[in-house]
Amino acid sequence: MTSRTTTPPSPAAAAVPPVPAPPTAAPRRRPGRAGRTGGRLPLLLVLPTLVLLVAALGYPVGWQLVTSLRKFGLQQQFGAPPEWVGLDNYVRLVTDPTLWAVVVRSVVFCLVTAFVTVAVGGAVAVLMNSVGRWARLVLQVSLLLAWAMPVVAAMTVWIWIVDWRRGLLNWLLVHVGVEGAAGHNWLAQPLSFFVVASVVVVWMSVPFVALSIYAGLTQVGQEVVEASMLDGAGGWQRLRYIYAPLVAPVLSIVLLLQVIWDLRVFTQIKLLQDAGSVANETNLLGTYVYQLGTGKGDFGTASAVSVLMLLLTVALSWRYVRSLMAQEN
């Protein structure tokens, strides 16, 4: 038998590590396919909501546009088809000084009430953020109760307060010695009417604004506030340089919503008018549309005013919408 002798490897060969095999190449994908799929999927998911939104809002807006191009009169109340007049309703409105008086009145009213509401709501939010637990709970419950009260019920109370015959406001003024308060009608003059209306609208809107701003204040980090206190910042400086910039997006949103809501306010103004004021001197856009449409049966002109009201709302809110989009980007 022949024996084989195995030659041991040399130290140099043993020191050389094995060469790893080249990695298997991944399968090539078509460029842009995943990106297109990822871009289409959100659109497909949002599509049903967009279709429902367009169907729910597009039909009323389209109906308003078509109606604003027609003329409604006494014959239409007995079944006659409306007459197509094109842009005559808009031309008549543009040359009507009554409309421009109502527009100026409505814009001033909505801007004043919106800014006052945000200011008062912000002050209440800061107060809730500063007081103790039980005081904060009382404030929150009070705001929720005021906000949950139905509009008609709240207006019944407010009309009783400012009533010129047996109102609480005149009774208090008489007892504190104010001359001429007995029997004074706060709703007869346009200036006092809009002061009362502004107080009512602000009172009904403050709970939403206060709770929204307070929710934003609770998101401010305590470490930032404590660091500012260590640096010697006072309460006003913390409010101006820390809280205000951090809750600025919330302030922008609530201010935008208040401008939109106060521009188309209707129920409060209508009920106050019915309580004892001259409607032609205290009309805002909402009550003016109601007066033209339901009161006079001129649905074409009322629809034209509604379209102008929509354009005015977009014009007033466009700047805030652009700022919100810039912050989002």
From TrEMBL:
Gene3D superfamilies: MetI-like. CDD domains: TM_PBP2 (cd06261). It comes from Phycicoccus sonneratiae. It holds the Pfam family BPD_transp_1. Residues 1-16 have a biased composition (Low complexity). This is Sugar ABC transporter permease. Residues 1-35 are annotated as: Disordered. InterPro entries: MetI-like (IPR000515), MetI-like_sf (IPR035906), UgpAE/MalFG_permease (IPR050809).
